[in-house]
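Researcher: We're reviewing a set of sequences before deciding which ones to prioritize for further study. For each one, I'd like a predicted 3D structure that I can look through quickly. This is Coenzyme A biosynthesis bifunctional protein CoaBC. If possible, include the structure in token form so it fits the rest of the review sheet.
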Amino acid sequence: MSVVLGVSGGIAAYKACEVLRRLTESGHDVTVVPTAAALEFVGAPTWAALSGKPVASDVWSDVAAVPHVRIGQGADLVLVAPATADLLAKAAHGLADDLLTNTLLTARCPVVMAPAMHTEMWEHPATQANVALLRERGVIVLEPAVGRLTGADSGKGRLPEPAEIFAAALDVLERSAVAPLERDLAGRHVVVSAGGGREYLDPVRYLGNRSSGLQGWALARAAALRGAEVTLVAANTTLPDPSGVDVVHVGSTIELGEAVRAAAASADAVVMAAAPADFRPLERSDSKIKKPDDGSAPSIALTQNPDILAGLTRDRVRDGQVLVGFAAETGDGQRSVLELGRAKLARKGCELLVVNDVSDGRVFGEPDNEAVVLGSDGSAVEVPRGSKSALAHVIWDCVRDRW
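Model: Here's the predicted structure for Coenzyme A biosynthesis bifunctional protein CoaBC, in token form for your review sheet.
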């Protein structure tokens, strides 16, 4: 894919080097278009070396090739990182005084902007109005992160981490190849759970599972890109918090259930992508369980954890709320994965159930996934192997169609 990486003049411009590296290493053809101010932070030789292409910031270089028109016309994606308050204002009002702003006017592909500025600048009514106008026109403006800013200041306005910007860019590219990425979830509050519950036997050991949280992260990111207010309940993951998402970190399955139920009270949809632990120790040892000298193994009594999804369907608090479960199945010799999935859908009482075949360790920790999305109305949507982001968008399409 052909990607234009626009870089405007903020201290966070150095982070765009990592975004560029990830884009080129994943096989994309990247043209870097920095503003003159951006070149005060990172010089043209750096951009040229990382992209393998010459770099210009004004419309007077290589005039015969008409770069102020051709660069935008030939792009599959324009990504601006960082996008300063000045750049957002120019883009919102159609100003074109350099190569980047000209490119933004000529692009007919998806445009993603990752803002970075001080909190006061981000919260200023002018900036908020510019962001609203850009989003109304179809530009995808990511929410800035919260954290350390220039100097000693902290707050909202920090550039999202390069890995998160890169993931969002790939998401937009992939989704746009199938259907336009619209803010069709705007005005909705959705809850996503991710990761796996851990039930501690003692201060050292626990019962757990292999869930990495990658599918839940993809669901949260996709929903945020499509305009939803997202609450992500994350259990024992090592992934950085996605930007624009309210993240609640939990440990045990009991904590997971409490956090999901609290967030579900105001949610239009809940997607249970986490893998709760089915059992927990009846008693937890306050000290490390010692290995017996006689070679025997300790006996550990277990009790069942509450069924979070079944509880949500039983105690549904909002009319029209769509509940989505996941079923990681392997088949049992008597019934197939889909037969087990259909039985689970009927037992749980949710509207949708995403059925994964996890035989031989598939799906867990992998970037790809394949599934069948079963509906309580008898529908079945087969999703062939592809990225977890692609599956996430199919799931949100199914949720949207049931609202």
